[in-house]
Amino acid sequence: MRTRKFQKLSDASLEIMKIVWKNGESSINQIFESINARRNTKLKRATVQVQLRRLENYGWLSHRLEGREYLYSALREREEATRLIVDDVRNRLFGGSSSELVRFLFKDLTIDSSELERIKEMMRKFKPGESS
Question: Which residues have a Cβ under 8 Å from the Cβ of 47 and sit 6 or more positions away?
Fold first, then answer.
């Protein structure tokens, strides 16, 4: 089996991954219809097929054949993708500093008191080095 190169998700790839994460195993027709249901400018089926092949090559998706239809499933969890995206933003924009990222998020956001309490509770429970 060949080694797959990790590739960041483009906006188009992330759109497909969100559909697969939400629906689980999905056919190209399900993905195609779901994407175009949300868009003013419709994509062609071939465009979606190219994106699916790229996602497979980059190790985000796999497929299996059922009858005459390919069914695609995620190889990476949504949380992993989120972590990779946030880590990329933290490293590229904040020099790897988590505190600067958090400071930025708090600076311009309006947070109501109940959400602030939830954040404080998460901070009380946080243990460095542990995944939650």
Answer: none
Phi/psi at 16 (nearest 5 deg)? -65, -45
Tell me: the pLDDT tens digits for 9-62?
Answer: 888 899 999 999 999 999 999 999 999 998 899 999 999 999 999 999 999 999
CA–CA dist 35, 42 (Å, integer): 8
In CATH, the number for domain 11-74 is 1.10.10.10
Domain boundaries, the chain: 11-74, 78-125
Burial-class residue 36 by CB neighbours within 10 Å (0-12, 13-18, 19+). middle
Q: Which residue has the tokens 């979606």?
A: 48
* pTM of the entire predicted model: 0.75
Contact 74, 60 (CB under 8 A): yes
Q: Which residues pair with 65 in a beta bridge?
A: 70
